[in-house]
Amino acid sequence: MGGIGVTHLDHVSVLITDVPRSRRFYGELLGLREIAPPRTFTFIVAWYDLGGMYLHLLLKPQPDTISPRHFCLHVADVSAAREYLRQHGVDIEETVEIPGADRFFIHDPDGNRIEILQWKRPYDPATDGLYQV
Length: 133
Description:
Layout: E1 11-16, H1 19-29, E2 33-35, E3 45-49, E4 54-59, E5 70-74, H2 78-87, E6 93-94, E7 101-107, E8 113-119, H3 125-128
Parallel strand pairs: 1-4, 5-8
Antiparallel strand pairs: 2-3, 3-4, 6-7, 7-8
């Protein structure tokens, strides 16, 4: 096998415009664990540990362009997550089904799109997939 020897996805970065507001959303509402970013950074960033993968929030003066781009957070109980977020006033965007999964989208305070997903069974590309041209 060729390529560069990728082993896994390390982190995802998203733009934010208000650090305290984003800390409330990601840390308090979603329950992510914030860790200290590198001491060598001379810019403002908040880092969250997702169990060996990381989410980096980069402070910028303007939010990112709204688009279908997103990152996905896997949860143990998607129904409980959906209800919890609804109870906390977060809009739920239902979406196209993926065989073997239950999922939905939310947006952070800056409009960044986040998928919340639970696999009910392993994805099987041989039976669940379809190549598109």
